[in-house]
């Protein structure tokens, strides 16, 4: 979809449909809707007066202007109640509206963001609207071979800004939204791609593509290199698989030379069968998504580079399959991590924390200003917080506040769980420094407590995305399937942290 911003009168552009909004509690059309209503002799007002269109959130009506060629149709989108309106709702509105337009086989639209009085700045409004449209229209059709599955897609979206003084802000918002949404698409594509086409090696190639496109430093450690570093926890998990494990290290240096980096660590299990402690076959297919954290990290770095965020960011993705091959690690095995600490394996399905343990130790080499890891780590987190909410635990109050603030801005819901030290008891081992599971209860917390042993004193936050990484139901602007969760959150976190204008070189 090509997106452009133009200034002028809504009806002067050559497009198949005009998209405008209406608040539920507004008796008469406002903003762009008012303009069209006047031009077309009460066309929209009549609809509202008759109660045929109420402005209920996510509802919409299509009306016909009687024009012979351009602007023949208007889609009026319900914005819901004005006092309940926010940018998260706007994302949903633009998603639902553009989906409806796409369903009508219309490939070209113009939209106005003038809803009458608004408390939201033009730039953020434009960003949210375009994000909603782009994120909602995403489809993963790479493997569909039949034409009917590849139906029409909106090709052209024009945002018409009738207030010329807002044009630059709107353009900046659109540009930011495009960069971020494409990074989310990228992450979703990686996650949606089945594990036969998304091995650790292929994941490393995709990261390398991103590095080439953006002039980033990348280094991919192979198994001998990891062996030299003593990463036996990561290598232990990899032993059951014929695919070679990779440790992908992607560096974006947008900050000053000596600025300590933010290090992002993403779990990259390209398929989690559970290993010898094998998972039930039902839904095992969903475990192609066990590299969602890694995908989020690569996507975040792609966006950070394209947005020229003035920070140094390092992405570390430990990548391997977890399979029960003949050489697979087994319950009872003891693995010596890169840090020197030993872990007794109680369950080979608790593999994420093992590869993250070594990756977190490796992260320490960068003397990070902060470490954030993101992982589809525990089913227990889904039990605690459901399918849509990311669990957060960490050692640094300020860092956690910043994540919560980014969560608020982006609508990627995050909720803190306590990193309650008393539960460390649960991962004590009789024979090693710790064991890799603490039993069923408090499973998300005991997993985080294990990770904590590998981060030293760096400010650290752990994000458990086991719930929201792969959706089984549509959300207003996130179609079911791979969500790309984490990308928008982490990019927002980085933008907030840099506090500089985020598109210095659009
Ligand atoms: N990748 C899974 C966690 C997961 C579960 C992600 C459901 C997404 C949806 C992880 O490796 C795992 O298997 N965790 C185990 C840990 C247990 C053995 C302590 C779990 O949650 O059951
Ligand atoms: Mn597992
Ligand atoms: Zn896993």
Structural commentary:
The C terminus is likely disordered. The longest helix is centred in the middle third of the chain and has 26 residues. Strands 7, 8, 9, 10, 11, 14, 15, 16 and 18 form a 9-stranded mixed sheet that branches. A 6-stranded mixed sheet has the order 1-6-5-2-4-3, with helices on both faces. A 3-stranded mixed sheet has the order 12-13-17. 34% of the residues lie in helices and 20% in strands. It is built from 14 helices and 20 strands. It is an alpha/beta fold and 506 residues long. It is elongated. The structure holds ligand BES, manganese (II) ion (MN) and zinc ion. The site of ligand BES has 16 residues, from helix 11.
Question: Would you summarize the structure shown here?
Answer:
The chain is α/β, with parallel strands linked by helices. The chain is 34% helix and 20% strand.
| Individual helix count | 14
What gross morphology would you assign? elongated
Strand content: 15-25%
CATH architecture of the largest domain: 3-Layer(aba) Sandwich
* CATH level 1 class label of the largest domain: Alpha Beta
Give the SSE map.
Blueprint: E1 2-7, E2 17-22, H1 31-39, H2 43-49, E3 60-64, E4 73-78, H3 87-103, E5 108-112, H4 122-137, E6 156-161, H5 167-192, H6 200-214, E7 217-221, H7 223-229, H8 232-238, E8 246-253, E9 262-266, E10 268-272, H9 292-306, E11 312-322, E12 334-336, E13 342-344, H10 352-363, E14 370-375, H11 379-385, E15 390-394, H12 397-410, E16 414-416, E17 434-435, H13 443-452, E18 460-464, E19 470-471, E20 481-482, H14 487-498
Parallel strand pairs: 1-6, 2-4, 2-5, 5-6, 9-11, 9-14, 10-11, 13-17, 14-18, 15-16
Antiparallel strand pairs: 3-4, 7-8, 8-11, 12-13, 15-18, 19-20
The structure holds ligand BES, manganese (II) ion and zinc ion (ZN).
């Amino acid at each position: 979809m090509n997106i452009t911003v133009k200034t002028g009168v809504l009806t002067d552009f050559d497009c198949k449909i005009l998209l405008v909004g209406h608040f539920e509690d507004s008796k008469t059309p406002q903003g762009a809707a008012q303009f069209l209503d006047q031009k077309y002799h009460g066309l929209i007002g009549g609809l509202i007066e008759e109660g045929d269109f109420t402005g209920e959130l996510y509802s919409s009506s299509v009306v016909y202007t009687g024009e012979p060629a351009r602007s023949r149709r208007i889609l009026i989108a319900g914005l819901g109640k004005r006092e309940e309106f926010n940018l998260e709702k706007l994302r949903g509105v633009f998603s639902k509206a553009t989906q409806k337009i796409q369903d009508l086989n219309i490939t070209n639209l113009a939209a106005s963001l003038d809803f009458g009085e608004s408390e939201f700045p033009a730039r953020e409004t434009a960003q949210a609207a375009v994000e909603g449209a782009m994120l909602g229209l995403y489809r993963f059709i790479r493997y569909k071979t039949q034409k009917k599955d590849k139906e029409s897609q909106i090709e052209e979206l024009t945002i018409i800004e009738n207030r010329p003084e807002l044009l630059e802000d709107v353009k900046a918002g659109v540009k930011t939204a495009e960069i971020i949404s494409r990074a989310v698409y990228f992450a979703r594509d990686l996650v949606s791609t089945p594990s036969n086409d998304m091995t650790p090696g292929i994941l490393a190639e995709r990261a390398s593509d991103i590095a080439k496109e953006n002039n980033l430093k990348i280094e991919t450690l192979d198994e001998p290199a990891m062996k030299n570093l003593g990463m036996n926890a990561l290598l232990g998990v990899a032993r059951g698989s014929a695919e070679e494990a990779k440790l992908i290290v992607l560096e974006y240096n947008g900050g000053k030379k000596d600025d300590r980096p933010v290090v992002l660590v993403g779990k990259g299990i390209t398929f989690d069968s559970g290993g010898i402690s094998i998972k039930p076959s039902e839904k095992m297919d969903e475990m192609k998504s066990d590299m969602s954290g890694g995908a989020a990290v690569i996507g975040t770095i792609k966006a950070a580079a394209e947005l020229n965020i003035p920070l140094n960011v390092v992405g570390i993705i430990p990548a391997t399959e977890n399979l029960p091959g003949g050489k697979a690690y087994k319950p009872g095995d003891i693995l010596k991590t890169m840090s020197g600490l030993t872990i007794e394996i109680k369950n080979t399905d608790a593999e994420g924390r093992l590869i993250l343990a070594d990756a977190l130790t490796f992260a320490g080499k960068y003397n990070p200003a902060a470490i954030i890891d993101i992982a589809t780590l525990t089913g227990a987190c889904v039990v605690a917080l459901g399918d849509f909410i990311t669990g957060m635990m960490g050692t640094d109050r300020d860092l956690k506040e910043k994540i919560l603030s980014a969560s608020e801005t982006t609508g990627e819901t995050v909720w803190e769980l306590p990193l309650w030290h008393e539960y460390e008891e649960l991962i004590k081992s009789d024979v090693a420094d710790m064991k890799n599971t603490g039993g069923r209860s408090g499973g998300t917390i005991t997993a985080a407590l294990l990770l904590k042993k590998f981060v030293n004193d760096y400010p650290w936050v752990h994000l458990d995305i086991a719930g929201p990484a792969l959706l089984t139901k549509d959300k207003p602007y996130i179609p079911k399937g791979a969500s790309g969760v984490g990308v928008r959150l982490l990019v927002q976190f980085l933008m907030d942290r840099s506090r500089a204008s985020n598109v210095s070189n659009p």
